[in-house]
Amino acid sequence: MTDEDVQYDTRYKMNPPLASREDRDVLIAGLADGTVDAIATDHAPHEPALKDVEFDRAPFGVTGFETALALGLELVHAGRISLMRLAELFTSGPARVLGMKRRIAENEPGDLTIFSTDQTWTFLAQESASKSRNSPFDGRTFRGFRWRRSSRGALPTEDRFATKSLCPATRFVISVPPAHIDVRNAGWMRAAHLKIEFRFLARCLRASVAIQF
Fold this sequence. Notes:
The chain is an alpha+beta fold and 213 residues long. The chain has seven helices and four strands; from the N terminus they run αααααβββααβ. The protein is globular, with a radius of gyration of 18 Å.
């Protein structure tokens, strides 16, 4: 997305503002070559009334949590960055910047994300988990779906994606902050305190599985 997409629609008003195609390409190159350490989202929700005004009066900011991974996967599908690099930008990259240490080991909490690289879905702001609707990606169809997450070993019961039946014949990726672990090792799943129904997971994983951390 660039400054050409704005058209004085307040959903596109953010700070820093959307820049030119040239600026975007340089930024993507930085993601690929390691110049950029991490991907983050400011995630600035606003009540509709604040955005439903003239462009110059509207506050800066858009929501970003629900679309960040899918947007990153667009770069992977376009061949701009590798899947491993994307996982690093969302996990070990931010951890290094913040001076945080994470490892998958017995009695250590598991911060994990399980997602499909190919599952298609359409983001609808009205169905967003956020109470805000200020997203420039409303109605956009993505390829790549965040299926389940674990924070400090716990799977939130309120995770709205957990109720979706997603078992496509595709590749799923478990992304964790770098080494490789065999996902078939159910003992590892228990050791990492990832409380997930392993039988259901195994039934969904019909192809290759990549582990990054």
